[in-house]
Amino acid sequence: MNDLVFVDSTFDKDKSKEYKLSIRVSSDGFSFSILNANKHCVALERFKAFNQNTEADTLNSFKELIRNNELLNLEYSSVAVLWGSNQAVIIPNEFFSEEFAFESYQLCHNLSSDTELHWNDLDQLNSKNVFAVPLSFKEILVKQFSTIEFFHHSTPFYKTAIKDEIADNHPKVYVNLQKEYFHIIIPDRNGKHFINSFAYKEDADLAYHILNVYKQQKLNNERSKLIVDGLVQEESKSIQLLKKYLANVEVKLLPAKLRIKNEIPHKEYNQFINLLNLTECE
Question: What is the reported pLDDT for 4?
């Protein structure tokens, strides 16, 4: 993966104001993509890890990486930041208010004075995805880019999953796999969607949580299809383990329209799927 950094031959720095920059940031590193006016990816930067000895080292590392990256010092038509974490709360629109968002988030997660609450519209779920961004990271990004829109990295996953055809008898189960946690959604035709996030350390933990969801939701292990994307590949141990218990397991690949380097195997793009699906949030 070390060579998975590319800029397409069509990329023109003088036309950067026509491009859209999307950055995925988490507490341990970042990656980014650049899309042209036709929503085709013209540049993709692999994950760059931060120096994490101390919090100050992490922030200084982030500043330095941005400062030294030529592509991140151009002007763009828009800049979207995808914040990566397993901490978010989904609130139905009928109950949503700023005050209720703060109360609900604090019931589930710690909301410290050095973080700021944001939310994204999940129109097809009639809900808001509420999450917190550390002010230290926000300040660095705002200083570098004048106008930014923040998204939780699960937002494009949910929006993409809910657009699929919803089965009546045997619902599909969608999982977005990240390092040490995953998001899961089971769309329901009647609007009673199951949505949750789980932490895990080992492949057995991951399989346990998913199989337990199947059990609790009374799904048929032979008929309800499991669709997994994110930090996963077909040959992953977790996928092979799940296939022992579930008859229909699919590793979802990035749509062909979002790929630009045919010589790079499709599976290598999986880790970027939320970043490149950010166009689903527009």
Answer: 43
